[in-house]
Amino acid sequence: MTHDRLFAGEHADVITDVHLTGADRLDPFGADPVDVHLRDGRIVDIAPAGALPRTGAMLDGQGGWLIPGLWDHHVHTVQWALVAQRQPLGEAESAAHAARLMASADVLGDGRRVGTGFRDALWPDAMTLGVLDAATGEVPTYLINADVHSVWLNSAALRREGFEAADGVLREEPAFEISRRLNAADPAVGDALVARSLGEAASRGIVGVVDLDMAWNAEAWARRLETGFDTTRVSFGVYPALLDRAISEGLETGDALDPAGLVRMGPFKVITDGSLGTRTAACSHAYPGDPHNHGLLTVPPDELQELMMRATGAGLACAVHAIGDLANTYALDAFAATGARGTVEHAQLVAHADVTRFARLGVGASVQPEHAIDDRDMTDTIWADQTAVPYPLRALADAGANLLFGSDAPVSPLDPWAAMAAAVHRTRDGRPAWRPDQGVDAATALAASTAGGSHTGSALHPGSLADLAVVDRDPLTADETGMRATRVSATLLAGRLTHRA
Q1: Averaged pLDDT score across all residues of the chain
Q2: Is 9 exposed, middle or buried (0-12, 13-18, 19+ CB in 10 A)?
C-alpha cells in the first residue's frame, strides 16, 4: 500500500523518509533520512531510508521530522469544546465593551447568552449589574473570565440560577458551579463537540490529554467510548466532591476504562487557591491598593493534607492547583507530609526556597507557558510587589523538576506549538521577550510536551510506543514564529493515523 492510499483510521507499517530530532538521541543517523518500521503499536526498527524492505502500509514522511506524539497535561475538555458555541470576549477593552459584545451575542438553544475569555484585571471600569443589565435586558447572560475563576451575570441570569451578587460577579466556588451548570449540555451535543475538538487537536500532533473537567468524567468517557471515540488518549481527573465515589468504585490512577487502554483514570484534582486575573491567588504579599487582600486559600492546609492522604491511600495520584506562592508552599508541604505522588498545577508564583522542593519531593510542575505571555502585563502590575518568582520555568528545570506542559484550555488555546514557543522564546506578537531568563531550551520544551514530561526526553528508538507526529520543521531549531507555524502532516496513535493532512 502506498502513502496515497493511507488515510486517517488506518495503521502504518513503515514511515518513510523522515528525520529524527531530540537532544537525547543515541542513534547514528544524524541528519540523514530514515525509515521507521512499526509493529503492534511500537517502533521495531529504525534504518537508513530504503535500507530495509518497505513492506506493508507505507506513510511517506516526505522529508519531515518525526517526533513523539504530544500531550496537553491540563484541559477542561467539555468547557473547551463548548467555546465553539460561545461569544469570544478576549478583545474586550472594558466592562462596557464586554457588555456591548454580549448584547449582540447569539442566544443559545437553552435561552442563554454565554461569553468567554475576558480579562478584567486592567480594565478602566468596573463590572456592575447596571452596565450588564442595560446592554442585555431580560435574556440570561453569562460572561466567563478567561481564568474561569469568576463569572459576570446579569439580573436575569442571577434569578435563573438562584444566586445573588450586588455587582453581578461570582467568584471561585460559586463561579465554578455556574460553569458546571453551563457545561451540563445535552450529552449528545457535548460529546460531539468534544470529539470534533479532539480531532482538531490531533491535527496539531496531540495524542493525549489530561481531562480535568469538574464532573464525573468516568461516566462521560465510558459513554464516548461506547459511541466509538478513539482519537486521543485520555487521563481524566476527579474532584473532592466525587472522591468518595471514585474510592468506592475502586478507581486507581492508571486504571483503564476500555480494553485498549485508551481512556484511564487520572489524578485527584484539588483547587487550593484562586487566580491572578481574579486577584484571588494566595500570595505572601498583598495585592496593590488592597492591603488586606492576600488572595484566598480555598482549601486549608490541614484539610488539603487529609484529602491527599485519603486519595493516596486509595491509589490516586494528586494534582494540586496552586497559583500564588503561599498556595505553592502549602501544596508542597502537603506532598511532603503525605508522601503523595503527582503534580502541582500552574505553579505561577513560587518562592525561591520552594523551587528546589519540586525535584526533591518528586512533584511534577504541570505548567501552561502561554499563561505567562497572556498574563505578563497583569503580572508586572498586580504582582509587582511580590518577592517570589513568577512563571519560573527555567528555575524549575534547572532545579531538576519534571515539567509537563499544557494549555488549561479554554484558558489558553489547545496548541502545543504555542506552548513550546512561549516556553522557549517568552513572547509573541513581536513584543520583546518577557523575563527571558526563565525561558527553557527547545529540547526541554519538546520533552515537556510529551506523555512523560521533560525528564523522559524526546528521542525515538526501537521499543518506543508508536504515538508519533510528522512535522514540517525541526522543533529544536525553529524560531518563535516558525515554532508557532509548525504544520503536522500526520499524527499516529499506536501506529494508527488519527490525522492525515
Answers
A1: 96
A2: exposed
